[in-house]
Predict the structure.
Amino acid sequence: MMSLARYIVLVAMAVLSIGVAVAGETIVQAAQTPQIEWQYRPADGAVYGIGQSADGDTLIAAIGYGFEAGGQIVSLDPATGAVLWQHDTPEAASADPIVVDGVVYAGMGNLTGGGAAVYALDAVRGAQLWRTNVENRSIPATPVDAVVYSDGKLFINRGDAALLQIDAATGSIVWELDLQKPPRGAPFVDGTTVYVSTGFDGGRILAIDLATGQEQWSVEYPDNPVTGPVFSEGMLYVPYTDGQMIAYDAPTGAELWRAMVGLRDGESDMNPKPGLPLLADGVLFTSSNGFAGAFTVALDAATGQELWSISTGEFSAGVPVLSGSTLIVGSDSGDLLGLEPATGAELWRVTIPGKIDLDLQQATAPLTANGRIYLIDRDGGVVVLRGDALRSGRI
């Protein structure tokens, strides 16, 4: 359980960050509401995913055309939304692009067909460095679900129940593993191990040796995982469709704790489904979706004890992200919410004109960098908000 001393510190931080009146003066400025700075709409198609560099100076959008094959990888000026370059692909958009050390990596390929490939592009000019075909020609279409980078290697979750490792410098496929069930969300790499969530008629979580692609351990669960796993402090966290968040011991796969997330509605099959967890300072944040309501919840990461829970939507709430000292969550109301991490108290609310495109798989959070928040709206565009100062921290 969270110690009393630590809880007191968290609450004290919350009070100070919101502002305390002393002799008629407020010693810390209250939260300021971010404002929409710019919006981007592609001339054709819609934005399927966005990614950015670690310093926030490169912003990339993957554009698709609905049920038609073909796509684009587009570089946008993070400050203005101006198109800097674009790269056309015969494959459709699918996974969020990523940017590492001046290179854009993008997985293209979804259920519309048109092939499947992973691209490496120069982040400044958009020049193609390499392209690797990852299509499974034995099936009509090959979705590329996620691309993750770690130490010169790319890990690709492919929708036909495959995990691939690709050399990030050359594009060569190092190994390919049959997962037996389709992957959920993105893999998570820590040290010499890559962790994967899979599910179809029940869930299976795997730990795989990074160098060889050999299974180290696996555990099964009667319900499917909602997203990929998240690793922190030797523990692996997986959300399931029955409403459970389960923590596993990462070296062995042994279950450490489980916690029901969100509000139950009797024995309904439409009970809440928690999304991708966010881990920060020993606290796990997640949002749950369901017909009983959408809630954003904070749990003690070590024990699963609930610290707070608040309603953040009628049916759906997005994956939370921390920006400075503010927890940011999208709501199916169309609003973007800023919450106090220690208590869940609402600090601000911004209405997005095209409403927020909430990821129904609850696997993608808004992007934040250099005082900006980047998100996709339901019209298929990118909306960017600017916040000068949020409470005691900055975004």
